[in-house]
Design brief:
seven-stranded parallel sheet; alpha/beta
Length: 251
């Protein structure tokens, strides 16, 4: 148990990976966790394991989210749900753009808009946005739309701190690098192949690492706001400089 004043949390994208790990970690701290995702069966399994309260609702379901928030007092909102795609702007489809913007950015904005007024009224709350290093760095092979949506989450996190200045409401952005989750399997359509390509020869982060990062921020003393946390594998770096030769420029 912790001395945190927070009693309830809502975690999106909670049925697997980072979201499920966050549900487990916050539940262990004594917070009542509401786990939100589309996969009802996985949520029920998670509820049996952790005691969380499952909500099989899509983050794109505005009516469903509004009804849910109206019935709850949420102290901690963890905006974790997200999607990714392969390819760059030249190979992105209109459907890819809509899906990524809807889940990665629009849903975060809409859910935050629904939850923040209650936090303001109670003068108590914590918003945790799971972004990505893709929101801060450009690198070859990244999906342009994904990068753009995560940059939007970064900007939102910064602006929220201005909007909530003077109140006992904290905003934390956790920006992970490579984490071993099912997302990579969905990207290429084969988790075994994804494991072989992205993880077997690398020492990547695990979902529990991000969950512990979230818990560190949420359970920190109220005088302390962990505003931004970039979490990378020890063996991974970001940034860098590429300089193409004149003769190698694409025709």
């Amino acid at each position: 148990m912790s001395n945190t004043p927070y009693r309830t949390a809502l975690v999106t994208g909670a049925s697997s990976g980072i979201g499920a790990a966050i549900v487990r970690r916050l539940s262990e701290s004594g917070i009542e966790v509401h786990a939100l995702a589309r996969d009802a069966q996985r949520l029920e399994t998670l509820a049996s394991e952790t005691g969380c309260i499952p909500h099989a609702v899509s983050v794109s379901d505005q009516a469903g989210l509004k009804a849910l928030i109206a019935s709850l007092e949420i102290d901690v909102l963890v905006n974790n749900a997200g999607q990714s795609r392969t390819g760059n702007i030249t190979s992105t489809t209109p459907e890819d753009i809509d899906a990524l913007v809807d889940v990665n950015l629009r849903a975060v904005l809409q859910l935050t808009r629904l939850v923040v007024p209650g936090m303001i009224e109670r003068n108590r709350g914590h918003i945790v946005n799971i972004s990505s290093i893709a929101g801060h760095y450009a690198f070859a092979g990244g999906n342009t739309v994904y990068h753009t949506t995560k940059a939007g989450v970064h900007s939102l996190s910064q602006q929220l701190r201005c909007d909530l200045f003077g109140r006992q409401i904290r905003v934390t952005e956790v920006s992970p690098a490579r984490v071993e989750t099912e997302v990579f399997g969905r990207l290429i359509g084969d988790m075994a192949e994804a494991k072989k390509r992205f993880f077997d020869e690398y020492d990547s982060l695990l979902p529990e690492d991000i969950a512990n990062s979230v818990a560190f921020a949420v359970l920190a003393p109220q005088r302390m706001n962990v505003s931004f946390m970039e979490v990378l594998p020890t063996m991974q770096v970001v940034g860098g400089l590429n300089f193409a030769k004149k003769t190698s420029a694409p025709g």
